[in-house]
Amino acid sequence: MSDIAPATERSLQDLDRLAGLAEDVIRRARAAGASAAEVAASIDTGLNVNVRLGEVETVEHTRDRGFGLTVYFGQRKGSASTADLNPDSIQATLDQACAIAKFTEEDPAAGLAEAARMATDFPDLDLWHPWAIDTAAAIELGRRIEDAGRAHAGIANSDGAGVQAGESLSVYANSHGFVGRERGTRHSLSLSLIAGEGERMQRDYWYDSVRSAGDFMGAQALGDKAAERTLARLDARSLSTRECPVLFAPEIARGLVGHLVGAVSGGALYRRASFLLDHAGKAIMPGWLDIDERPHLLRGHGSGNFDAEGVATRDSALVERGVLARYVLGSYSARKLGLASTGNAGGIHNLQVAPGAADGEASDFAGMLRRLGTGLLVTEVMGQGVNTITGDYSRGAAGFWVENGAIAHPVEEITIAANLRDMYAGILATGADVDPRSHILCGSILVNRMTVAGE
Questions:
Q1: If you write DSSP's letter for every residue of 219-252 in order, what string do you get?
Q2: Where are the beta strands (DSSP E) in 74-201?
């Protein structure tokens, strides 16, 4: 633990250095004739260890730097970047960005976000928790995780355990005078196992992802979870083609929310490449369902006080009682659409899907299985069969057939298909079994009907 204080001190010094560099480059860009400029600079460090069958497969130490500069000459924009922070490289990056801007066409939507929207309040979001783990300790932890999983009868092999510790420092600054500093840590543990032999072979995994290593599930628990998931897939079979209700497990359900975010994001909208074009203010989900953005959650995976353009983040509804409350916009896409930025340049910040159903009751996973009754539980999806333009959804899937609210047998080699518009409107319940490992905080989602294609 003695390394945590020095790591924290180094991080503050590095942030000051990045901020000073960013401000200096912006001054030089203005001196070179740029009407506006912005800089994003970062330093990412990490340790990544992989262990398989008790032996060390890889050990990787990383320290990556990034420096990106955008200059504006009126409505002409030029961008350049480098991974080298020495003065000559920075100057070359500045010269290149200015040269590019002089040859680009004017874009009426180009420019910094509005100065009045810049963040001015920077509360501590509890995102910085350096993990004082050295290589030897990470290897030992990986072995313990793998040993816990391999100890289960029926586990035939391992694809390995992973231990990853990471720290990220970033500064965004622009010629409005805004300088925003962020630092955060992300750590993860994972294990992938194999059960059965030959054609009966099945593979599955589990992982944990946290801001603070103190929040990890235990090595034994992670190994047990990975083994239980893998063994549960043995003797999987296909299904005859049918229509039935489908329950998406939490780690898969958040993908459905991700498709929603993609469809209501500015880039898809101004290109008119979304099935939810012109749907703001319209009902797209059941009237009991709420989805809220919460950028300031302590230790949240997507928490931040400002977006990628310095715009202050704030709590905001995305879906309110089934109605699409707004789009997801940065300043460029907002200008293209004649709207205002929603503080989402660079992406969404912590979406929370409220658990519930038409009857007002929130259910845990067992309760969601009872709501499903007889139908398909999906625990894995494969392929890229999602068309955001039309909303068509068709993906390979695996999971479990459920009868009378209880798992009957594992299922594989099937395809699930529907249209996202119908899937969102047909949500019967959202679970209280929220998966905390993502910036999309979502429990399982029960959809009333999909086509399941198998044998």
A1: HHHHHHHHHHHHHHTTT-B---SEEEEEEE-HHH
A2: 76-82, 155-174, 179-195
Return d(Cα 212, Cα 299) in angstroms, integer: 8
Q: What pLDDT, in 10s, does the model give residues 40-80?
A: 999 999 999 999 999 999 999 999 999 999 999 999 999 99
Domain that holds residue 41: 4-232
Cα Rg for the chain, rounded, in angstroms? 24
pLDDT digits (tens, 9 = 90+) for 90-144: 999 999 999 999 999 999 999 999 999 999 999 999 999 999 999 999 999 999 9
Within this chain, do residues 276 and 424 fall inside the same structural domain, yes or no?
yes
CATH classification of the domain holding 93? 3.30.2290.10
Centroid of chain to Cα 120? 26
Sign of the alpha-carbon dihedral angle for 24, 28, 31, 35: negative
Q: Which of 210, 232, 254 is the last residue of a domain?
A: 232
The dihedrals phi and psi of 255, each to the nearest 5 degrees, come to: -65, -35
C-alpha separations of 153 from 232, 302, 410 in Å: 12, 39, 18
Same domain? For 143 and 267 the reply is: no
428 plus 312 within the same structural domain: yes
Specify whether 292 is located in the same domain as 172.
Answer: no
For residue 203, the Cα-to-chain-centroid distance in whole angstroms is 24
The position carrying tokens 């490449």 is 273
Cα(163)–Cα(51) distance, rounded to whole angstroms? 9
Q: d(Cα 377, Cα 397) in Å, to the nearest integer?
A: 10
pTM over 0.85: yes
